Amino acid sequence: MPTVCNEGPQVQCEFQQKGPGRIVVDFDGGQITSDGGAVLLSELASQTSIIGDTAACFNDYRDPNRTSHSLQQLLRQRLLAIACGYEDVTDHDKLRGDPMWGLLAGKDDPSEQAPAGKSTLNRLEVSAAKEDSEEDRYHKIGLDEKAFEGVFTRWYIRSHREDPPQQVVLDLDATDTPLHGEQEGKFFHGYYDHYCYLPLYIFAGQHLLWAQLRRSNIDGSKGSVEAVAGIVKQLRATWPATKIILRADSGFARERLMSWCETHGVDYVFGLAKNDRLKQALTAQLSEAERLSGQTGRTERVFGEFSYRTLDSWSRPRRVVGKAEYSRKGANARFIVTSLRPATYLGKELYEQFYCARGEAENRIKEQQLGLFADRSSCQRMKANQLRLWLASVTYWLVSELRRIGLAGTRWARAQARSIRANLLKVGGLLRSSVRRIYLALSSRYAWKTLFGQIRANLHAGWEPPPG
User: Fold this and answer.
1) Three-state DSSP class for 273?
2) Where are the domains of the chain?
3) Considering the domain 145-273+340-372 in this protein, what is its CATH number?
């Protein structure tokens, strides 16, 4: 991209203030970027295989001799832009005028080579989800959905370069993605009270292993057996001795999923929707909780457990733990069903310390949707919206790895994506280039400049060698 000395009319603004002098604002500062801190994510992307593995999930049928932007450059640009707060491809037409984005996209000469615009990125984001891309005249980038489904688990395994974990807890959850247009497969969901998709997420701690977009006219557990089976197969191929436990709310306490777990040696702890039979089995505990609450004036909980089987939907009796709670609002009974034996977890510990910890997965979903635009389903076709969800998921992995490696041992080690963006990525900088170097000058008064250097050192210390 040639250097632009005068782009459009000159604009100068004056502002009044109390005291002497005026504030004069103009736009002749030169090549100043607002995304100077994104070099941290760019460095991480260069040192890990995340971008390369993502590119391997696409089929690029374009003629390389007639292509200005490689597939990896398109992905770097789009993923880093999502991390920096640019949620739509239309934002990239403005970013083309910022040499910083040529640098972030991996251009050899960012001062002369502009990054891709919205039309080119649209071929990646929308056209890749179409069929028969190789024969189509315009749609030359295809998507390999099966490859995408296994890539997140592969990154999770690779993140454990030390001894294999003794136990992996997989958190399953379904949430809503609101729809406001004529998207394919939209359906009105009574619980959420709007048209939406119902994506399925699976996390292992803060690591995302599965993100599948689904129609909302289904049971919340639909597809969970197939998703878990693929993840467990990958985990056991590398860690055959690792114990695997599934954890989810009552929407996943289904016979098919529980039977699969029991057949394949996977434990589970699921919420269980209460009914009259379950509450009757917890009568004594509810009475005791009411008595204790009357004495102390506080909310009291008493736990009980028993063997339970539904009248016709379960194939066998299963262990159920009940929480009898009494407060100023009255009695409240909650239940979980599990394959874990009492010798492994007592009822109170299982409910309060293990099951309730699944709320962390809900925080990770909120981070993805509110901070990285995973709920943006603006395309008409469902496969294109699935790809948008995957791109947001890959961006989540980049931010998560920045936390795990770059921010290790710092006050930002558990920061949300939006906090990382506001404090570490959205940093103003002056860009200058010479024959041999590109200079990015950040403010000498930047509040986190010491941390910035520490992150860079952590990234190099935690460098991930390329596969093979």
Assistant:
1) coil
2) 1-30+44-143, 145-273+340-372
3) 3.30.420
